[in-house]
Specification:
Elements lengths: L1 H14 L3 E6 L5 H8 L5 E2 L6 H11 L12 H15 L8 E5 L7 H7 L5 E5 L2 H14 L16 H9 L4 H14 L6 E5 H6 L1 H12 L16 H6 L23 H7 L16 E2 L1
Parallel strand pairs: 1-3, 1-4, 2-3, 4-5, 5-6
Keywords: Transferase
Pfam families: Sulfotransfer_3
Protein name: Sulfotransferase
């Protein structure tokens, strides 16, 4: 019976559809990328899912902090985590290829490598000053709705808010550090960086690069009719319109809402633009 179960589990893993990942920095085009990928009827993509957090919890429960961890082998850990994906992306998601989105994935490339040997991570990146600007603009746009970005606090200044999102565990700081970990790590060959400026400035070239990276047949996307709806989620976080995407893919032109000293603080943080620092030859589009 055990051998039959093992063969069945192995067969199920072999039948698992390709799973790729969208990660990177916030406010850098991941929602737009998901909205475009969804135009392909073979693909499923959405905004951030709960899977990354569930993986964290399961790994913690299977660690040595659990007194029964002595009865859990690495092979069992692998099956449990792999089964988490298979169960979550069940019959409700009939697509041939799954894209799961989370800023955490850049910090978990070794884990993903143990589960999906052929996985790819598309990390969306953007000039950090403009990321900070976009977040602050969203906060100011919803001035009457305290949000998760500053822990629903109502006091403080723009300087307090920027410090809160830029430190190591903050919204920007964590994802920036995770991106560098992936960019310089041993699993960097699974990684592609997609610049926001490329995605909105030349979406056809950007999507062609994505399809080439994941080794899928190109698809004719409609960049003038993009649809995405996350209104309910945005309302619950106190940030209506946070994940709204324009119907047409265009490069926005605007002045920053940041004080000059804050904007200058981050304007040289785009390490991926320095070819000499790309020691792993990561594809940057």
């Amino acid at each position: 019976m055990n051998r039959m179960f093992s063969r069945h589990a192995a067969t199920q893993r072999e039948k698992m559809r390709p799973v790729h990942f969208i990660s990177g920095l916030p406010r850098s085009g991941s929602t737009l990328l998901a909205a475009l990928l969804r135009q392909n009827p073979r693909f499923h993509a959405h905004m951030s899912s709960p899977i990354a957090g569930m993986v964290d919890v399961m790994m913690g429960e299977m660690s040595d902090r659990n007194e029964f961890a002595a009865f859990i082998t690495d092979a069992q850990r692998q099956r449990v985590l792999h089964g988490l994906f298979a169960s979550y992306y069940g019959a409700e998601f009939p697509a041939d290829v799954i894209f799961d989105t989370s800023r955490r994935w850049c910090s978990k490339l070794p884990v993903l490598g143990a589960l999906f040997p052929d996985f790819k991570v598309i990390a969306c990146v953007r000039n950090v000053s403009w990321i900070i600007d976009s977040l602050e603009r969203a906060i100011q746009r919803n001035a009457l709705r305290p949000s998760f970005m500053n822990n629903f606090q109502t006091g403080g200044t723009i300087y307090n808010r920027v410090e809160g999102i830029a430190f190591g565990e903050g919204l920007v700081g964590y994802s920036y550090n995770a991106l560098k970990e992936a960019f310089y790590g041993d699993h960097a060959h699974h990684l592609m960086l997609l610049q926001y400026e490329t995605l909105v400035g030349n979406p056809a070239m950007a999507m062609a690069a994505v399809y080439d990276f994941i080794d899928e047949v190109p698809f004719q996307h409609d960049f003038d009719n993009v649809h995405f709806d996350a209104d309910e989620f945005d309302e619950r976080t106190g940030m209506p319109g946070l994940h709204a995407v324009g119907k047409k893919v265009v490069a926005p032109e605007r002045k920053t809402v940041l004080p000059p000293d804050i904007f200058r603080r981050f304007e040289n943080d785009a390490f991926w633009r320095n070819a000499s620092s790309n020691i792993r030859a990561v594809r940057v589009v």
